[in-house]
Amino acid sequence: MSESAQPATPVTFPPAFLWGAATSAYQIEGAVREGGRTPSIWDTFSHTPGKTAGGEHGDIAVDHYHRFREDVALMAELGLSAYRFSISWSRVQPTGRGPAVQVGLDFYRRLVDELLAHGIKPAVTLYHWDLPQELEDAGGWPARDTALRFAEYAQIVGEALGDRVEQWITLNEPWCSAFLGYGSGVHAPGRTDPEASLRAAHHLNLAHGLGTSALRSVMPARNSVALSLNSSVVRPLSPQDPTDLAAVRKIDDLANGVFHGPILHGAYPDSLFAATELITDWSYVLDGDLRAINQPLDALGLNYYTPALVSTAEADPNGRRADGHGASDHSPWPGADDVAFHQTPGERTEMGWTIDPTGLHELIMRYTREAPGLPLYITENGAAYDDKPDPDGRVHDPERIAYLQKHLAAVRRAITDGADVRGYYLWSLMDNFEWAYGYEKRFGAVYVDYVTLARTPKSSALWYGEAARTGVLPPVEAE
């Protein structure tokens, strides 16, 4: 028998590995005016003409607020062992300050109870980009007070759910909140101020630290507190070119070091200060802030989609000054006008993102070195494709199955190489409102008919469910 004809060795995961899926509140819940909920920055942004594809918004989204029991039953049917969801801050604390609205908390209590009744571990994300509009009106994330308000909100939710939810994530992808929200303006609140984006990054870090302390003050010690970073894998266009390596350093600081520096190590990179000294003096980093931010973590979440390829801007006149995070004349990279981004080679998803599972392995191993002994979770990974039902109503998505197989195999290689990866959350459980892209991009393992809101598991959902039930990656069909 030739080597190529030998049966492949099954890719098997540890028995305790968590197989989950992830969503966020504004992308799925709808019911934006029910139970005392008030507008978030994404309500305002998505209702501003020209900000989202087709002027679409999350007013109804996929109506998870009213259909959560159906959605939990579907998760259980698929065999998921965990579900990561976010809390709508303005549903729980409509003005971003003061007492909670109990009807808002009650929705999440019912959701948690439903998950536990089906044997699914809930993982709560406190903030997934939907700041209460009143806090934005008061200054938003560039204002220090927002971090203080977040700590109060964290304590409220921790007190309400901490007896039943063991896995907690303070912030999801603070890079997007800071640099897409306040730098390039392609995300809510749509501001384009480089200095404000750096202020926002610091106050998001402070919110994480203060929120972590607030959660621990009201929850059982057994609970895990983490955050999810969309840390970039940044590679040079020319590995031997020192100017391209300097470009990598600059983007790595702005994508990664600005968050993991203070959170994991208690300090911002000196090279970050040097690169941004003409934009900000960092005087808003006050005495005691870095100690407050540098709280011990119980785990770290990593979100990964595609690597970045950069050079000095002079290296290639066709290089782009922005990196594809939506169309904008403003860069999300303050102090990096001399850096160009390039399309990495290879097959791409509907987002135009190159499929490169080696980047996920590289990212995991980096944080295994950055934070030795800290458990890791892949809290987002997935792909958008142009999914359509067959005439018989089934949704066949072999491209997503191949994507998942390759990326999960990369996770398993990292475990073999010594990484302590304890779970994987597929993005996303179901098709939903994809931020500025509206409903154009489908990331879900479950297809949603946006007219009837009927849910149909795609073939990738069935494939992933088999992996979740058996702990072994099923075969991938030959295309």
From TrEMBL:
Claim: Metal-binding is one of the keywords in the record: no
Region called Disordered, residue ranges: 315-336
Reaction(s) catalysed (UniProt annotation): Hydrolysis of terminal, non-reducing beta-D-glucosyl residues with release of beta-D-glucose
Active-site residues per Swiss-Prot or TrEMBL entry: 380 (nucleophile)
EC number of the protein: 3.2.1.21
Comp. bias intervals (Basic and acidic residues): 317-328
Pfam families: Glyco_hydro_1
Entry keywords, A to Z: Carbohydrate metabolism, Cellulose degradation, Glycosidase, Hydrolase, Polysaccharide degradation
Family: Belongs to the glycosyl hydrolase 1 family.
Cited PANTHER family: GLYCOSYL HYDROLASE, LP05116P
Protein name: Beta-glucosidase
